[in-house]
Amino acid sequence: MGPASQPGIPGEDGLERTLTVTLVTIARENEQWIACGCLGETRPPPLTSPAYLSEAETYYLRRLRSRPRHDRRCPFYLPQAPDRIRERPGDSLFEIEFPKGLFNAHKKAPEKLAQQPDDEEPDDRSRGVSVPRLGRLLWMLLEAAHTNVLPPLPPQGRPEHGLRDEFARLREAASRFLIAPRIKLQDHLYFNVKEWQARRVHARLRKAESLWPGDFAPQAFLLLEAHGISGTTVHTGLGDLKVRNRIQHTGIIRAKVEPPFIVLAVVGEHNPREGYLPLRAYAQPVFKGNRFIPVEREEDRAFFDQLVSFQYRMRRKNVQVAIKRPLFDIVTPAGKVRPDAIVAFLDLRTGLEADFAIQLLRERTPHYLEMKAEERARFEEYHRTISLHTHQLGDTDLLDRLEAMIDTA
Predict the structure, then answer these.
(1) Same domain for 197 and 333?
(2) pLDDT tens across 358-393, in order?
(3) How many Cα atoms within 13 Å fall on the side-chain side of residue 211?
(4) CA-CA distance, 72 to 60, in Å (whole number)?
(5) 311-314, long-range: CB within 8 Å, 24+ apart, which pairs?
(6) Range of the domain at 38
(7) What's 128-145 look like in SS3?
């Protein structure tokens, strides 16, 4: 495959583009490498490995570094992508919007290849620098099911709420989403790895293929509560799920967050010879095994433990308290905001119903505190706000400070 056949060269006609895509597709399905002729016939050829990036809907060619380099005039001779600072939700005014389109994460391979960036575009070939689509789809489902909410406590005792209740809420919420036109998410969403192992997922997808709209790739989703994640394997209490690609997660170091996790995996078909496989998965640490509130660090669990204690404390004083963890940006006149928690309360003593926001401060550096001050200014256009440092989560007066937000409302 010489330089003349590189996609994206001006003057390339539709036939050549189609043949190029066909070549890459066949090479990928047969696990073959592509030799480049840029060094001539007398020297060992550079090799490229074909791959498909479903999220970007494009094929691309990976250079094999163990082989000779391409000629400098060859379109495959590209400088390494520049380093890009990895964005992290807890470190900046990081925006997270609802995912666009239908509830799908796998698309048919289009007839296009990855292109070299235009001169006016940033040369950024890095991936995974933002929350993956699977992660945002998972959060959207959790938001719709209200699993990111700690509801008011019952008048007496503890709430009777288990893992089955969380899955029931998610199953009901799934009825409101479509994978493709006329294809309900609820019909192809599974909560048990046994459904995959028994090949029920495969059977239902094969049966639905004839009804699936032609422009959309048939796919299903597995939503699993997991006690461990290792590389490409999801470990659940009922068995393991092997995923084709490495399991995705947030930019936070996952090793510092203990289980449980909620994992959303998309099942689809890349290679007809392989059939349906779990292609990608996103792992999200959650508050508890029966409370699917997303957390980023272990200290977030300590934070919600304190809020649960606050609920019991205020119940004794005849005040109902509910807590929500916003997962997406809230648009206000001051801009987009997303506090760490919103506490809503109903004071049965006075009839007052109001709320306040909580901002967690994880660092003490001047730059970080300056960003958080700007963030808080936006919050306060929408809610009264209290800022807490994570090192204060174990303080004995923390609940007093939270109660003062109710007393002064």
Answers:
(1) no
(2) 999 988 999 889 989 988 998 898 889 999 999 999
(3) 13
(4) 19
(5) 311/150, 311/152, 311/153, 312/153, 313/399, 313/403, 314/345, 314/403, 314/406
(6) 3-63
(7) CCCCCHHHHHHHHHHHHH
